[in-house]
Each structure stands twice: as C-alpha cells, then as structure tokens.
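Progress against Task 2.4 (sequence-to-structure conversion) is shown through the following example record, which the project officer requested during the mid-term review.
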Amino acid sequence: MPRTVYFRIDNRLVHGQVIEAWLPYTGARDLVVANDALAEDMLRQQIISLAVPQRVAVHFIPLNALEATLAACEDTAFVLFMDCGDAFAAFSTGMPMSSLNIGNLHYSEGKRQLLPHVAVSPQEEGQLRSMRDAGVSLDFRCVPTENTRGLDVQLA
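Structure tokens generated for the chain above:
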C-alpha cells in the first residue's frame, strides 16, 4: 500500500490542474483513475496518457479494482474519481479516506451550486454529507495553492 494516498473528485478527470498542480504538489508516482466507463475505453485512455508525465504510472481501473491497485503502488498515489457516486462507492467498501478533495463538478439541471466550481444533486450532497459525517475531511478547491474550504461549505 502506498505511503500516502490523495483522493480527488473532478468530472474532467485528467486535465491541466491535475497534471500541472496536483501531481507536483503531491509528488505522486501513481495516478489512479477509478471509473468503470473509462476503464473500458482504451482510446480515451491512450489519449489521456499522452498528457501524463513519464515519471508517473497511470492506471485506468474499474472501481472494484481500487484496493488491489493501491496495494501494488509503492510510494504516493493520487486517485481521481469522476463524481461523488464513484467516491462514495469506494468509501462504502471500506477504502480508508481521511480527506477528499472536491475539485470540479459541473452544474446541470437539478443541481445546487455550492461554489463556482462545484454543483451537486441532492443525492451527491447526501453522499458528501455521509462521508463528512463519518470523518472524511472535505476539501473544496481547484488547485493546491488555494485556501482549503470545507467546514464553511454548507451541505443541506
């Protein structure tokens, strides 16, 4: 199991903020993208892999492979979830998660805007609240240089 595991929700998955800010900040040697649909999409995986620095091993896995994948990582790992449902599913299976960064969740009809970069459905809000109530520290920020927000974000 890696020494340190960072968890992030970002519906964009691998993009500039992850590559240019989060990977250097965390020093992660393994980038784990845990999403069932992307785990089966080889073309998207190939395209995304082109953006990842060579020093970082990238793993595209279904959610049920997260524990085994992390067990094979030796140093620091950075785990990306596409949405709250994926993060909650991992958490619900017993994945140790002391902190969860919520980076970006696009607005769509039926969602409530919590912050300029985070909009959640009632179900997603409930999932975040459940994790927070179970002791997971919620960290709402796009990049690591921003001030951490969590306790001041009002979940219904």
